[in-house]
Amino acid sequence: xxxxxxxxxxxxxxxxxxxxxxxxxxxxxxxxxxxxxxxxxxxxxxxxxxxxxxxxxxxxxxxxxxxxxxxxxxxxxxxxxxxxxxxxxxxxxxxxxxxxxxxxxxxxxxxxxxxxxxxxxxxxxxxxxxxxxxxxxxxxxxxxxxxxxxxxxxxxxxxxxxxxxxxxxxxxxxxxxxxxxxxxxxxxxxxxxxxxxxxxxxxxxxxxxxxxxxxxxxxxxxxxxxxxxxxxxxxxxxxxxxxxxxxxxxxxxxxxxxxxxxxxxxxxxxxxxxxxxxxxxxxxxxxxxxxxxxxxxxxxxxxxxxxxxxxxxxxxxxxxxxxxxxxxxxxxxxxxxxxxxxxxxxxxxxxxxxxxxxxxxxxxxxxxxxxxxxxxxx
Length: 378
Description:
single chain, alpha/beta, TIM Barrel, 8-stranded parallel barrel, 8 strands, globular
């Protein structure tokens, strides 16, 4: 029974990762966590020490605009925001003939006012949680379905033309075994929707960056091999893809820095941008069978600090300046992460981000900062 429960947890987490369903956001942990203090902490912010023109982004929660507790943190440390849910399919295009832009427009307006760029997430995603009902039950054939998707992509990208710096055009089209995910898009069109989505997005906005976004790509393996083959086919067909978004929901000790470096390099060597799109580093493996860390102890925080530092350092070393799509952290505070911060059925929780539940910097923040300043990770 324990194994079955854990397998169930894996399935649920994989369906929400990245892409953070709102039901898992903005929850305050009841598990006590002692946040170690950063020795000799400075007042330096992330964007103040970042290399010139490097995007340092953060995912903004569903209540970000109305709950202003994170505004100072974001405005001081980051230069780009990604709306966690407001720009997903079912929110922007809830009915076949109806689009809804008010909430997303508010994020864009806020960003403009505070000199933040916007990364759009995401034009096409299979998740049942975020898929409009009319797409799930679409009765038309391939031609009609592709025409509907063309209208979907064209209308949205055109609406935000000149206001959004980059888009996740397609999100998670490849499954964990390295095959194409059997989504409604694949069932209706095979892989044709992939090329079309990028072509339609480019036709609507000739300057915006267009990314394919997915998780576990930094691990190599079958999934990454399939993605590279997909990418090479797109390039051969002159599909206007700008780069790859590596979600980077990684563990403290997996994958290795060398593997991450090789994955980044494989994309950069193709002349495409590399974006870390949804970074977080939990202390425990949320897909495993046991939690080692029950609280954010000093030793655990030190490991997390080093891991953040090594990831950012590897990115800056492996990706040429002109091919850096930026680094986005998937959430502001630990209590707002997609990784449950309230106890699960075994009483476990986690603390994967740069700021604690009170908005205080953690050692992880210092690790990120050290890498930006090209200092040793320790």
